[in-house]
Amino acid sequence: MSAYSHDLRQRVLNAALRGDATEQAVANRFGVSRSFVQKLKRLHRTKGSIAPSRARRGPRPRLTEADLDALERWLDQDPDATGADLADRLARERDVEVSRSTVNRAIRDAGLRSKKKTAPTVRRPRPLVAGSRSLAPPVPLVEATWLDFGAAENEDRWQPTNL
């Protein structure tokens, strides 16, 4: 929900400060809640302004601007530092306990980059697993004329095959 316009806030405050109607009557007249009228009066009394406060979502950031500046310096000094390394260094040197994910998110959001450590590529042979096709030797095609059943005398019992 967006904030009420400055014009409406001013009209509600003027009507409430005039004192000729109750807060509930002013709220009903402008279609706002009684607590909104009370809030406007309190803002005017304490801050002198009725401007809406900036809406902020979620918890406060754990890393301050000074922490982000330190992270940037450390990344310039050691581009191979990982998020875990930087989180440990923040805890040691700046007394800020944050997770590796928080550091990586802060680096990304600040537009900084850390160089990734890469392991050399090693091609390893794939392990042979029982039941895989790679274990079975290829089957050669055999013509039926090559087959010798060793029974020339029993030729009448054997029928020619065509594999």
Automatic annotation (TrEMBL):
Protein's name according to its UniProt entry: Transposase Synechocystis PCC 6803 domain-containing protein
InterPro entries for this protein: Homeodomain-like_sf, WH-like_DNA-bd_sf
